[in-house]
Design a protein that fits this description.
single chain, alpha+beta, eight-stranded antiparallel beta sheet, four-stranded antiparallel beta sheet, 8 helices, 19 strands, 26% helix, globular, binds FE2/S2 (inorganic) cluster, binds fe (ii) ion
Length: 393
């Protein structure tokens, strides 16, 4: 009897994991560029396989609703916004954009007792940073979006759903959305995006991979395969991630040499990876600086998007920088398109030391976070302290 229960539980967890597709919930993800959400227009987006409709109130506040009417499920994006509420195209129910709360059901008569204000469309917290609409993909919004609708769903067991929602949210904190670090008042900035036909995990370990540079990013302006040499870099644990400790970057890259010549000061760089999906890089030399934030966002289990935003006060025109950055991104994208071709057949893969150690940390961080959320205990960091990794690149 007891064993059956355990089996059932394990089977349920397996189904859960399959449904989950290895996404990390309860984090902020960039859904769209701010500039795409204009006036009273409604824009579709997908994050973690959740269809969203994004819009803006007349006051300028961005909002994100689950793109499904809680009445019959038609996408709300077929409806229209009046600058405050979104009206469904099917029966005209109206929902407050910012809270998802139903404010009007046109078919009700004065005799009806239905409590309209207890019906909610799934809604997600939304903020704007660095020209992105960041949406907080809370676990609650994923499966329990209509728990409070007041309208029982067929076969719904409301009590157990609520209990599950409560336990799963232990230890989840809604903290601020990521923001690019800048170090002076005046600076230039730009952003780029590209789609990857892969699971977010592959995108992230590609992002943190130190050994592909000489093979994927061969360019006359950067480096050649011949410049490969042994490197030793120190890494240290940081909350939810790891840092390549502040150091002077590779001397085999021309742009760094140029920067050093310009300021006469040493060039230093710090690279962080932080869950769920973010890499930041800071390059400083005297008063000059360059800063970037890259995220790999799960759209579906087989589709991710890299968003890259950078700012700098080094004398470098935006057009030149974009040309270089686009080349890099395209090289990564082409490689990952080819990789996806191989991954279709589920080959066995390996992670080797030391070059793949950052990838191992990523998987361990992710597993430990999920475990901490499951048990309610503090998250265990996979690194004990600073460690030096050696590889050739
Ligand atoms: S389906 Fe949206 S109002 Fe009926
Ligand atoms: Fe790369």
């Amino acid at each position: 009897m007891e064993e059956n229960l355990v089996d059932d539980l394990q089977a349920a967890q397996k189904v859960e994991r399959a449904a989950d597709a290895g996404f990390l919930w309860d984090f902020w993800y960039p859904a769209a560029r701010s500039a795409e959400i204009r006036g009273r227009g409604l824009v579709k987006a997908t994050l973690l396989e959740v269809p969203l409709v994004l819009g803006r109130t007349d006051g300028g506040a961005a909002f994100a609703l689950r793109d499904a009417c809680p009445h019959r499920g038609i996408p709300l994006s077929y409806g229209r916004s009046d600058g405050k509420n979104v009206e469904c195209s099917y029966h005209g129910w109206k929902f407050d954009g910012c809270s998802g709360q139903c404010v009007e059901i046109p078919s009700l008569t004065s005799q009806d007792k239905l409590k309209v204000e207890r019906i909610f469309a799934g809604h997600y917290p939304c903020v704007e940073n660095d020209g992105y609409i960041w949406v907080y993909m809370n676990q609650g919004g994923r499966r329990f979006s209509d728990v409070d609708s007041g309208v029982p769903q067929p076969g719904e067991n409301r009590r157990s759903q609520k209990a599950a929602a409560t336990t799963e949210r232990v230890g989840n904190v809604l903290s601020g959305a990521p923001k690019l670090a800048t170090f002076s008042e005046r600076y230039k900035s730009t952003h780029l995006a590209c789609d990857l036909p892969s699971h977010v995990d592959q995108g992230i370990i590609g992002l943190m991979d130190p050994a592909h540079g000489p093979f994927v990013h061969q360019s006359w302006f950067w480096r050649s395969k011949k410049s490969i040499h042994e490197k030793a870099k120190q890494f240290e644990p940081i909350p939810f991630g790891f840092r390549m400790s502040t150091h002077s970057p590779s001397t085999n890259s021309a742009p760094y040499q140029l920067l050093k010549k310009m300021t006469g000061a040493p060039v230093t760089t710090t690279i962080d990876f932080i869950l769920p999906n973010m890499r930041t890089e800071e390059i400083r030399s005297g008063k000059l600086w360059f800063s970037s934030l890259t995220t790999v966002t799960p759209v579906r289990r087989d589709l991710s998007r890299i968003d890259f935003v950078a700012a700098w006060n080094v004398p470098m025109p935006v057009t030149i920088f974009r040309a270089f950055a686009k080349t890099f991104l395209r090289q990564d994208q082409e490689t990952m398109i080819r990789q996806a071709e191989g991954l279709q057949h589920n080959p066995r893969l390996m992670l080797i030391d030391d070059a793949d150690r950052p990838a191992k940390w990523y998987f361990a961080l992710k597993a430990n976070l999920l475990e901490a959320r499951r048990t309610g205990a503090a998250m265990v960091h996979p690194m004990d302290g600073p460690v030096t990794l050696r590889w050739r690149s």
